């Protein structure tokens, strides 16, 4: 996602460069349409009048523009095409905003899970009474929730390579375009937008060929990173196969076959399944800690943890449906057909009603280019996780989520165990006094 300034009436945006712009992608057909308009204008019969309205144009019926006696039929067609594009614009922006809402809900609710669990667990274990075990629990829970969130971000952007998870660096303030982009100025944007290789590669098409390199150069941060052992565990997670076992019926006279899950199976092929695998680990860890005496609050309060996990997953699945469900094919096909027809008929109308060559060429180009440009904007917005640089900044959002989680850990009942430079049990300690104990 490109952040920009709104100064000088937005005029600096015109000089932004190729990176993120649809200007060049909308050019091919408008250029062809304009060439067709120029041909029609310059090969017209010499005796055709050049006055506005062309009242005598009928004296050369073989000429294409001679059939245009009024612009109204074309205006109806142009209105229909415009209506179709406006509908797609509204639909595309709704998809883009719903995707952003979904990942925000996911982050908010999963953050609540850690806040509730860490706060209640710390309150149940005052200093000197199992605090070390509690701290290790909170650290592991923090790592798992951060991992679950980062895997969700990877799944949304279609990244299946677990090596694209990197240790969280709290000192990095702008990870999306700078700190997590190691491909150099020709691959990573920033102030080098005019020379951006990705910008040039997407001048005339929405390409996904570079995504593997893009993902490798913009890894998703995880608090504590991901060890090779964890990668091996995640990559070896198997999808169980369905088997049966026999269960004795209540009447005691017969047996019936009941489905069950067996251990053998194939490895998962999607990051989406790993998100739920890690979420199961979070469930297990919280339940185990409660059975050990931690999170010692009433059952209705504990249910807030499960509700937070559920609501966060709901946000993730709302975002996931945007990835899984493209803009309807029939509508997309009809729009591009209507635009091609528009690019063909527009020059005929322009030549019929304009007497100057520069007006025919310029107005034909601007009109068709605007229609195609708005359609390109729609094509990019309707896939908010796929096409950089106008995709949602998932890496940056993951970084901000991790920062909030670390702030929660730092704010939860610190004591002399990890506020290690002062002999006190105060609530807060300064940054240089804080040490995160690694399990």
Described by strand count, sense and barrel closure, the largest sheet is: 2 strands, parallel
Overall form: elongated
Please give the order of strands in the largest beta sheet: 1-2
What is the N-to-C order of secondary-structure elements (H for helix, E for strand)?
HHHEHHHEHEEHHHHH
Structure in words:
The protein has 12 helices and 4 strands. It is mainly alpha-helical and 439 residues long. The strands form 2 sheets. A two-stranded parallel ribbon has the order 1-2. Strands 3-4 form a two-stranded antiparallel sheet. Helix 2 packs antiparallel against helix 9 and helix 3 runs antiparallel to helix 12. It is elongated and about 90 Å long.
Describe the secondary structure blueprint for this structure.
Blueprint: H1 28-42, H2 72-124, H3 131-156, E1 165-167, H4 175-179, H5 197-201, H6 211-217, E2 220-222, H7 228-235, E3 238-248, E4 255-267, H8 271-291, H9 299-324, H10 329-353, H11 357-381, H12 394-411
Parallel strand pairs: 1-2
Antiparallel strand pairs: 3-4
